[in-house]
């Protein structure tokens, strides 16, 4: 994250540990501008929370970390590092003694939290009822169970009483003087009564054990239920506080005067740093935001562009590096790498005029808290959301938007080299994310059997067909055939995880691309999409993860890395890097760019092992030719911010077409 050694320490007062609650002042690292800031920390019920002042405990919590899953580390005499999942707190005490008190309290609280979690692990799958009717039904069921247990206990007592009376009566009969035959019968009855008594005793013991076990588990369930109710109440109060703070911040922002803009004469080279500095200075207080460690998973290679003299010498000596020795390198041919996408298909005069506008997006103010407070504990995919959260497209149409830059595949189909083709396929895989940068609205869920057909054979030579093939879990199949030498198909299932502050969307399924002339068959999978600020703040989307593209025929590969956004990273946001290698693992091309703007490729002349990176790993240094543009995003249409930030293709997806299936998304009823 940062250098925790920065900043100064000061006094921190805390009560002696031993009680369930432990409070005191600590210094928390915030950012490079403000360093360590004094904060009031409260340790209670296995949770460590902090506030700007003691007075804030009544209304505003700045952050909380769960000690049950946290890792506690001590860096030096006064520092404490707490990490849980993706969250890390760098703390500093005033003295070493004070640090040790806090560490002791944290360790004890962590051990207690783990014990509580283990005790309740058997009940973790139970859901608390979310309505009054569910609570009434549960209480009624508990009353019936208690009544049945009382009946069982009464029967237990009656069996024991009547069994003892029967045994006494039979014993008295044996003592009477009766004929021999009668005595034998009485003896047989007595033996049977003895067997009945033994059996009854066994049943009575089993019933007693069951009663004891039921009473024990009943108390345990009641404790777990009470704990879940308290947790839900706490969560509701926290979210309500966040919603109120969000509304107050919005009002304050509307009422505040407009900030003075940066002087236009500021050099463009320093623009990014100036904007970041300006943003940090304008913020009210660094403690309002959760800060995370900087991402250390930087690319495992360094690219160095060769000089013109070096390129000339290598060209004269026929050193073609890893490209296979072809003297006429495609990366040096400007006609193969123009300044814009290969728009040969778009230059054709279309047979019909497509629309360039859709009705403006309605501006409705929505209170997310009013929706979420009644859905706590429910599965995210089953939460009913207002239609205003959707954009006027279905998920099938969003899949069809992957073809926005189909000309990359048209160009790849004409490539003689499979490595050059791989570069263009990689650029196409990245281009499908370019439309998501501003698209925070949710597409409509298709119905089971719903289809969407996109026929662009007259303009661009391809025809696309999507179908919703499963409803739970939702899954779609997509198939595209192009008259320009390629076929693409994919099957996509969406898995999502709600993390409180953000939502992770993980597409499951493979994408296949086959080129007719060469027989090359490429396979890859999509990366994880993350929607941030679900509850409070402005929604924004990030893409992160790795894509491996494999040519099934030649076994050539392309490794693409989507770097997650980090506040502390020096790299450009939304960065994508990659390496194209042959079947033997030798690198031939380096890819670089961003998933929302452009992708460039550079041919590798030679490689060498460089110095160690921040993690101690040795990085590879690639000497390359000058990079050439593979793909660049088209500018959005005019007034796009009022049209859901739709691209030129997305604006046409709801146009009425002739001869489409009756299950097409365009024909889906809008009400009912």
Automatic annotation (TrEMBL):
SUPFAM superfamilies: Oxysterol-binding protein-like, PH domain-like
InterPro entries associated with the record: OSBP_sf, Oxysterol-bd, Oxysterol-bd_CS, PH-like_dom_sf, PH_domain
Coiled coil location: 225-252
PROSITE patterns: OSBP (PS01013), PH_DOMAIN (PS50003)
Gene Ontology cellular-component terms listed: cytosol; perinuclear endoplasmic reticulum; plasma membrane
Topology term for the membrane: Peripheral membrane protein
Alphabetical keyword list: Coiled coil, Lipid transport, Lipid-binding, Membrane, Phosphoprotein, Transport
GO annotation, biological process: lipid transport
CDD domains in the record: PH_OSBP_ORP4
Residue ranges constituting the PH domain according to the UniProt record: 19-111
Keyword Membrane: yes
Protein name per Swiss-Prot or TrEMBL: Oxysterol-binding protein
Organism per entry: Champsocephalus gunnari (Mackerel icefish)
């Amino acid at each position: 994250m940062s250098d925790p050694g920065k900043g100064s320490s000061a006094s921190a007062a805390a009560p002696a540990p031993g009680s369930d609650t432990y409070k005191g002042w600590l210094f928390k690292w915030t950012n490079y501008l403000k360093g360590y800031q004094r904060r009031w920390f409260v340790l209670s019920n296995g949770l460590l929370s902090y506030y700007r002042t003691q007075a804030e405990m009544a209304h505003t919590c700045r952050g909380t970390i769960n000690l049950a899953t946290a890792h506690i580390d001590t860096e030096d005499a006064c520092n404490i590092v707490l990490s849980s999942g993706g969250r890390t707190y760098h703390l500093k005490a005033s003295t070493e003694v004070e640090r040790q008190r806090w560490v002791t309290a944290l360790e004890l609280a962590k051990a207690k939290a783990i014990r509580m979690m283990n005790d309740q692990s058997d009940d973790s799958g139970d859901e608390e009822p979310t309505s009054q009717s569910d609570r009434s039904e549960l209480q009624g069921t508990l009353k019936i169970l208690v009544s049945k247990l009382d009946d069982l206990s009464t029967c237990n007592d009656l069996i024991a009483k009547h069994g003892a009376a029967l045994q006494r009566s039979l014993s008295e009969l044996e003592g009477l003087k009766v004929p021999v035959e009668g005595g034998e019968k009485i003896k047989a009855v007595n033996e049977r009564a003895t067997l009945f008594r033994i059996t009854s005793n066994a049943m009575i013991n089993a019933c007693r054990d069951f009663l004891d076990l039921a009473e024990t588990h009943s108390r345990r369930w009641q404790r777990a239920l009470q704990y879940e109710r308290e947790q839900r109440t706490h969560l509701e109060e926290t979210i309500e506080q966040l919603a109120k703070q969000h509304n107050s911040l919005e009002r304050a922002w509307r009422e505040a005067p407009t900030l003075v803009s940066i002087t236009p004469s500021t050099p463009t080279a320093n623009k990014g740093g100036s904007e970041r500095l300006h943003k940090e200075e304008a913020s009210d207080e660094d403690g309002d935001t959760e800060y995370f460690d900087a991402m250390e998973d930087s690319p495992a290679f360094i690219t160095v562009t060769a000089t013109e003299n070096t390129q000339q010498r290598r060209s004269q000596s026929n050193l073609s590096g890893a490209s296979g020795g072809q003297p006429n390198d495609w990366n040096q041919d400007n006609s193969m790498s123009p300044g814009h996408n290969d728009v040969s298909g778009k230059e054709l005069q279309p047979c019909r005029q497509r629309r360039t506008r859709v009705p403006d997006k309605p501006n409705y103010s929505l209170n997310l808290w009013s929706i979420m407070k009644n859905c706590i504990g429910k599965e995210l995919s089953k939460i009913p959301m207002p239609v205003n959260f959707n954009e006027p497209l279905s998920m099938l149409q969003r899949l069809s938007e992957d073809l926005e830059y189909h000309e990359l595949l048209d160009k790849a189909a004409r490539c003689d080299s499979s490595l050059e083709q791989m570069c263009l396929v990689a650029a196409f895989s990245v281009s499908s994310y370019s439309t998501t940068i501003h698209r925070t609205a949710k597409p409509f869920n298709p119905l089971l059997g719903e289809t969407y057909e996109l026929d662009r054979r007259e303009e661009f030579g391809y025809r696309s067909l999507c179908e919703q093939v499963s409803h739970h879990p939702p899954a779609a199949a997509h198939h595209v055939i192009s008259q320009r030498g390629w076929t693409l198909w994919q099957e996509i299932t969406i898995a999502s995880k709600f993390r409180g502050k953000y939502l992770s969307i993980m597409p499951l399924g493979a994408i296949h691309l086959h080129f007719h002339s060469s027989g090359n068959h490429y396979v890859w999978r999509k990366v994880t999409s993350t929607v941030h600020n679900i509850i409070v703040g402005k929604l924004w989307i990030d893409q992160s993860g790795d894509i491996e593209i494999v040519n099934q025929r030649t076994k050539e590969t392309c490794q693409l890395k989507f770097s997650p956004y980090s506040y502390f990273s020096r790299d450009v946001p939304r960065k994508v890097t990659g390496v194209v290698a042959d079947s033997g693992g030798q690198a031939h091309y380096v890819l670089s760019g961003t998933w929302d703007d452009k992708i460039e490729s550079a041919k590798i002349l030679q490689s060498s092992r460089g110095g160690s990176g921040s993690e101690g790993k040795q990085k590879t240094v690639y000497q390359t030719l000058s990079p050439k543009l593979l793909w660049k995003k088209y500018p959005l249409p005019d007034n796009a911010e009022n049209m859901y930030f739709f691209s030129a293709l997305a604006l046409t997806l709801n146009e009425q077409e002739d001869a489409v299936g009756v299950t097409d998304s365009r024909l889906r009823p809008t009400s009912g």
